[in-house]
Structures are given as structure tokens and as C-alpha cells.
Specification:
This protein is 48% helix and 1% strand. It has 16 helices and two strands. The two termini are 46 Å apart.
Amino acid sequence: MSFSRGKKACSIPKQHTKVPGMENQEEGFHVKRSPSSPQGAPKKRSAFVDITNANKTQVSNHTKKEKATKKTQKSSTVVTKNEANLKKKAPASLEGEPEKMKVGRLPVEEVEESPPKDPPCGERQQVPEEFDIDKEHSGDCFMTSEYAKEIFDYLKGREEKFVLQDYMHKQPDLNKDMRGILVDWMVEVQENFELNHETLYLAVKLTDHYLSSTVAMRETLQLIGSTSMLIASKFEERCPPCIDDFLYICDDAYKREELIAMEINILQTLKFDINIPVPYRFLRRYAKCVRASMETLTLARYVCELSLLELELVPVRASRLASACLLLALIMKELGGWTAILEYHTGYTVSDLCPLVRSLHSMLAHPTDEKLKAVRSKYSHKVFFEVAKIPVLDVQRLEEALK
């Protein structure tokens, strides 16, 4: 299985045809191509001309008057029937006030005395003042501080639906080393296309969930990975790469029809439920609780991204993995341990995270495969504060910090 690397193919800009007499028209004016125009040039048209019959129906003034008369007669008939129905259904206490019932509503005096009540709804959870990390963004509509905690509580609740187990024993033609090579290649794809980190995490999740439900051959493993990246890009990116870009990075090993068929297959297998919680989102949220610096957050992200290569960590819930990565980063940077505010927002105690933190530390100290260098190379760059070059913490110091 050859995993080629490449840069994103440049797309050729579309040619725009200038139309005589339209140089001063606004750019947003709607145009369409007409088969009768020479060389298929755009032809100016009115708005909604294609979805109405305005250009086909010519109604005379006499016909308009007839329709208006019929409409008036029909309206008066409806009003008469409505008044009769209101009189039939009027309560006994209001039968003496027919002039107020003509408008079909209660008198103003009664509305003022008994105003309508809002329908009952669930009360918003009150966050203690010392644990409220969203109050500083209360005026920022983009931060959704009013219900940010509810959003992450909802995502944490959805984790139960996407719990996976080690599925490799179901794959007779695959092994964990092949999966590691695939994920390492997907990291390079994310870098080359400059995609969001959420896209990478979601693509790995989609791959694992698909492989846990379907037997795949090693020849199609790269196709599954690239198709998962395509789906995740459509879900996360503003301008996702096109199909030709993903065919290019696969060195044209697959055809367009194969990639589209695999996309349909993955979506149908997952029942189109691809909003899978990923640890990267939780990590950013939890780092905000302790006002972690960008360097500390990047170190936690490095540990979290390395965990994508490990098949043994696939069953771990995203929120728990994010919490353990942050705790390990705080210990490595000597910024203290697990605080009460972190325990409140994550729902995990130090004892809950200790086994996972030890596993992550072992992963840093003893990599499973030295050949998989995409993540380490990525986080050795100055843009990521060269966090991959930070010395691994001593085991004894780690145990002291966890106590």
C-alpha cells in the first residue's frame, strides 16, 4: 500500500465572459445561459422568471376585475361563516358581548388581568460564580457564553453513543501497524491542505467507526482514509478540498467513481450520524478553565494528536482523553495539578485520569513505531513552539505529581 505525499493541486480559475451592454450592471445580477443566444453567452433576465408563470400568462383588465370580485365575495362569505362559528363556540359568560367577539379574541381588559404564561421549559443549570469561565464573554455573540456549558454537556452525553472497542480482530487483512501508517499519512494530508485540526480528529473517528462495522482489504485502506477526510472536510471546513484533490494525494490509485461509492458506503454504514465528539474540542474548553497559555495548550494538543496513532486508545472517551492530555501537559510544564474548576467542568477526578496519564507518558517515552514521524515533525516546528522537543518527564516526578 503506497501512501504518496503531495501538495494541494491548484485549481484553475473560471473564465468570465463579458457581455456587451452589461459593463455597468451590478455583479450580483442574476444571469442564465440561453440556448438561443450566440455562443451560449449569458442573457439578462428578471428575478424569479424561472419559477413563476409571469412570462407566460397575460391577464386582461376584465379578467382581473372578475377575479377581484370573486375574491371579495369569497372573503365576505368566510367572514360570515367565521362569525357564526364564533357565536356557536362562545362561552356563556361572553354571549352578551357579541361586538367584542367579532374580532375573534378576548376583550382587552381580560387580557391585561390574566396575561398568557410562557410554556414550561427546563431550567438552565446555574454555574457557581467561581467556576463560571464564560462570564467574561457574555457580550460576545460568537462565544455563545449563555449556553456554552450546555453544548459541552450535550457533546459529553453523545460520547456514550460512539464508544468503540478494539476492532482489529475483526479485520483478517489488516493490523494495527497499517492503521498507524494510515493515520500518520492523514496527519500529512491535514498539513498539506491546511485543514482544521477538528477535521483530522473527525476523519480518524470516521475511519475507526467504519472499520469496526465493515471488513476491509488493505488495498482499500487508503481509499477509506482519504474518503473519511473528504467527509470530515465537508462537515468542518468552509472551503473543503474537492474530490480531484483527494485523488491527487492518493497518486491516482483510485478512480473518482470509487471514491464517491466509498463516501456513500461510509455514510450509510454510519447512518449519516457523523457529529462525533472529538477530544480536540474538549481540550480547548478545559484549557480555558485554567487560563492555560498557548504553549501549554499546544503541548497538550501534541500529546492528544500522538494518541491518534495508538489503537489501544481508540476506546477512550474524547472528554477523558482531553482531560488526561491537559493534566500531563500541566505536570510537564510544572503548572500544578488538577484543580476544583477542572474537576467541575470535566467531571473527572485525578484518580479517574491517573491510569490514562501513565499510558500517555509511556507513549511519549517509548513510541510504538519510530517510523511514524508526521506528528513529531509537525510539532517540532516553531509555529507549534517546538513542543515535541521538550524532554519527557521522569516517571518518579510524574508519580509524585499524580499523588
